[in-house]
Amino acid sequence: MKKLLSAFLMLAVLVPLAASAEWNKDWPNKNKIVVNAQAASSAVADVLVAVRLHSGNFDFAAAKADGSDLRFIASDDKTELKYHIEKFDQVNELAVIWVSLPKVDPKDKAAFIWLYSGNEKATAATDAKSTFDAATVADFHFAEKTLLQDASASNLTAIGDITAQKAALLGEAAIFSGKPLNIPSVKLGGQGFTWSAWVKPAAIPQQGILFSQGDTVIKIDGNKLSLAVGKATVSGGEIKPAAWQHLAVTMMAGSATLYVNGIAAGTGSVTLTEKQSAVDVGADYQGELDELQLANTGRSADWIKLAATGQSAEGQLITVQASDEGGEEEGGTSYIGILVNSLTVDAKVVIGILAVMFAISFYVMASKGIFISKASRGNHDFLKSFRDANHEILDLDKNATGFANSSIFRLYQAGLREIRKRQIAGQPLKLSGASIDAIKASIDADMVRETHRINSQMVLLTIAISGGPFLGLLGTVVGVMITFAAIAAAGDVNVNAIAPGIAAALLATVAGLGVAIPALFGYNYLASRIKNITADMQIFVDEFVTRVAELHGN
Asked: Where are the domains of the chain?
């Protein structure tokens, strides 16, 4: 007993300690962000990743309108991570946030970070300048409100005539029509150099210059990525039209490497020199461009790969799990929670109607099943008594309480009523052919009424069978329309924004099938039982009339 009491006291002490292990209780909402560290082959420091939030993985209604209550915390639930917001649209429930991961190590097979939100009293903690590492010279997000502004600590400002494309890969992007942007006095080279950007050429082939500084030129040469440094050139890869591709060029130690979508596409020898002069971006280039980064270091192959996977629409590097009232901390993603949270109003209305239809169908199947089972047992018992009665077939109503559920017994009673109308007290019962025909007609009329009684409410099952899938399809079609309309209005077309809405819309079709399939099985089963009972009643009517005619006919 003492040991049990000691264990209980220790548990009582440890439970509040465990509960207080969370970063800050003033932030009630918590999302787990899983990091696929196996995307790299070796450890990489200072990785900048794009965290996309949408209605499927984040509760915008519980956050502040400008996202100033967001906090990103390391897996130890203590260390705050540096981040800055490129886009936070609470109305359309879309956001793009850049988070600096101190390290991505493939040895950490369960890497993750936390996203906290929901503190109305919180003030903004974003710090774009410190989000980037020391080697970053410039980072242009081409966001609509800061289209020509560098987000890094360099605080550069580009000069030129470009427009913003709202429906882009990462928030907004820049649309180039052949006129270059000019970035005055940029110092690059020295220890190394890295240029990277997401590009979406309007057409291929073309000769669009993506970067130029002095004798260093990076361009699309036909359908390939090309680097020229003086007379030395390197080219490789395949660039496709009307599709987003991550392109990068690194130079260090006399060598240059070209990358397309995180994969090395060409290498060559070049001589890197330090320059401090203007940079031109987009001369003769036709298409869209986003997330232009310049760095004074030669990034590693793993760094380039993580940049491509961490910023792509598929989101292969990180996965934001929907908050499930704390249940996500130990388990996986709550897919049902994602679907329910992503339901549009029309889908909720349709699913509500289908839920009522399902409840009615279940009630009809249950009540009708009980009714038919009782009727079948009652018919069986009465027919046994009727066939054993011989000359006493007109006296079976004396045990009426035992056949209360029998539909055949009620037909028998209908026949007795007609017979007794024709019976004269004190005289043997004699029925003419016309009387027997009249008795049969009366019993037939009661059989029709019994058939209607047995089949009552079955029409509700046919409505569920035929109407359920159509209602579900209506909810799906309208939900898909609303999802695409919202995506078009918000200008974000990545798969993470679209998928939850489409999946939630399909939930209406699933609900319709969930109503129709059980109703179909139940209807067919009940219909077969009703058919048997109806056949028994028809046989009994003929059998009863025949025996009455034999025993009491003229």
From this structure: 28-135+301-330, 136-296, 343-554
Q: For position 1, what pLDDT does the model report? A: 42
| Cβ count within 10 A of residue 537 | 23
Residue 532 has a pLDDT of: 94
pTM listed for this prediction: 0.61
Rounded alpha-carbon distances, angstroms, from residue 107 to 14, 110, 463: 30, 9, 57
Q: What pLDDT shows up at residue 497?
A: 61
CA angle, 193 then 198 then 101, to 5°:
70
pLDDT value, residue 13: 39
Separation CA 151–CA 140 (nearest Å): 6
Q: What is the pLDDT of residue 10?
A: 45
CB atoms < 10 A from the CB of 101, how many? Answer: 24
Query: Which is nearest to 246 in space by CA: 50, 449, 436, 13?
Result: 50
Number of residues that make up the chain: 554
Provide the 8-state DSSP code for 398. Answer: G
Q: What is the pLDDT of residue 481?
A: 86
Q: What is the pLDDT of residue 335?
A: 63
The reported pLDDT for the residue numbered 491 is 60
- Bridge partners (DSSP) of residue 116 are 30, 71
Nearest CA to 464 among 313, 353, 349? 353
Q: Encode burial over 171-202: b for 16+ CB neighbours within 10 A, e otherwise.
A: bbbbbbeeebbebeebebbeebbbbbbbbbbe
Count other C-beta atoms under 10 Å from residue 527's C-beta: 14
Q: Using CA atoms, how far apart are residues 477 and 89, in angstroms rounded to an integer?
A: 25
Pull the structure tokens for residue 443.
């019993």
Q: Return the SS3 of 150.
A: coil
Distance of CA 433 to the CA centre of its chain: 73
Tokens of 364: 């009809």
DSSP 8-state class, residue 454: H
Instruction: Provide the angle, in degrees to the nearest 10, between the axes of the packed helices 433-455 and 495-552.
Output: 160
Q: Of the candidates 343, 399, 364, which has an alpha carbon nearest to the alpha carbon of residue 522? A: 364
The CA distance from 85 to 251, in Å, is 30
Residue matched to tokens 């030669």: 298
Residue-level pLDDT at 16: 39
Alpha-helical segments (H) within 292-432:
301-311, 335-342, 345-388, 407-421
> Nearest 5°: phi and psi at 85?
-100, 125
Give, in degrees to the nearest 5, the angle at Cα 250 between 249 and 254.
125
- From the candidate CATH numbers 3.40.50.1010, 2.60.120.200, 3.30.43.10, 3.40.50.2000, the one assigned to the domain spanning 136-296: 2.60.120.200
CA distances (Å), origin 315, targets 221, 223, 451: 29, 26, 62
Backbone angles phi, psi at 134, to 5 degrees: -65, -25
Single-letter amino acid code for the residue at 277: S
Q: How far apart are CA 398 and CA 60, in angstroms?
A: 73
Question: Which regions of the chain are under pLDDT 70?
Answer: 1-21, 315, 324-338, 341-342, 399-401, 489-498
Q: Whose CA is closest to 18, among 333, 449, 292, 329? A: 329
What's the CA dihedral at 183, 188, 192, 197 to 10 degrees? 0
